[in-house]
Amino acid sequence: MSGKNSTRRSFLKTTTAAAGCAIPYIAWSSKAFANQSANDRPRIGCIGVGSMGKGDARGHANFGDILAICDVDSEHAAQANADEKIGKGKADVYKDYRKVLERDDIDVVSVVTPDHWHVKIAIEALEAGKHVFCQKPLTLTLEENQLIRAACKKYDDRVFLVGTQQRSSKGLFLRAINMVQQGLLGDIKNITVGINGGVVGGPFKKTTPPEQLDWDMWLGQAPKVDYIKERCHYQFRWWYEYSGGKFTDWGAHHVDIATWAIGQDQEGMGPVEIDGTDAKHPVPFEHGYATEDDSYNTAHDYAVKCKFDNGIVMNVTSRGDNGILFEGTKGRIFVNRQKITGKPIEEHWDEGKFGEEELAQLYKGKPFEGHKNNFYRCIRDGGQPVSDVFTHVQAMATCHLSAIAARLNRVIQWDPKSERIVGDAEAAQFFARERREGFDILKVS
Question: What domains can be seen in the chain, in order of their start residue?
Fold first, then answer.
């Protein structure tokens, strides 16, 4: 890092500190950054600019200047660069993300790639001195949970926000979490996490990759296979090779909220038994692996029961409404992105117990605001964002364990302290995956 940019990054983090105690009470909007000179605004590189990536890039552009755009699909990159809210026709365009990371004038990196690329790019971005925004689900495996957590501990001067935006939903999810944590529902006994059924499809045709796509780079650490249109871009999430199906797609949101609410979001916590006997896949499986390679293979019908050592049972299921049902000894509530319902809500049990003080506590001492607002506030002021890596990987452990139990159609035991599957050698092999040569993930300590 050059002296000039080192000074500039220090400025980005300390400029508003001069405002003293007033900082936590000022609405942190894009205007706070827009009014800064070009030399003081965060400079951003966007890696992955498909549909979700473009949306995130437009959000980042409210707070800084996008200097670099990267995508292995040149059409995606060209579209993002031409977008007047993203590249404005002025950004540098790359196919290789490393070209973005090696630039000393990039302060923030937005990683919105398929899931199997998240951790590799994120760790290398941290090592390169960047603040990181990464879409959910952050990890592909239980091993990756440990790898990214170790990197964030080492590079604790970098801000890392995960794109689980439900953590910034005041009237719905934060209200539900507060109600649980305030004990208003009594002791929580059961949680039902509805994440919808998985997608079924195939067999699909194997074809030649389109010219604008670097298929080998897209595959990354995953096995080399023939190109199938439905393996790529948005549909990648219905293949275990690149994601975890609904377990990690919606699970990264709803399981995260549930584990946060019940205080099971710290290292060493988590379920101790995961029952995957009630799970179906759209193709035949042997020893946890699909026997067909031309069809979607993630679970589509399931009810996986995760038992915690405090007696709480979390049912991660495709059946029923999408959302989270908390059942306690005093009452029950249901919450999703459209509504929050139940007698405790109708009767306002949390009246006078859900205000600015409670919100600030959920926001790690910072004021409630939009998801990316919180990210850029932390870059300027320091501190952990509302959606941090350390709590996110705890939720992801439950998601990955649910997928593993479902793939094997059996009950598995998990030791949250050692973070190991115990008493089942076959299941334990799913802790990590073999990566293709040349695509290993940097290990830091």
Answer: 3-165+374-381 (3.40.50.720), 168-352+390-431 (3.30.360.10)
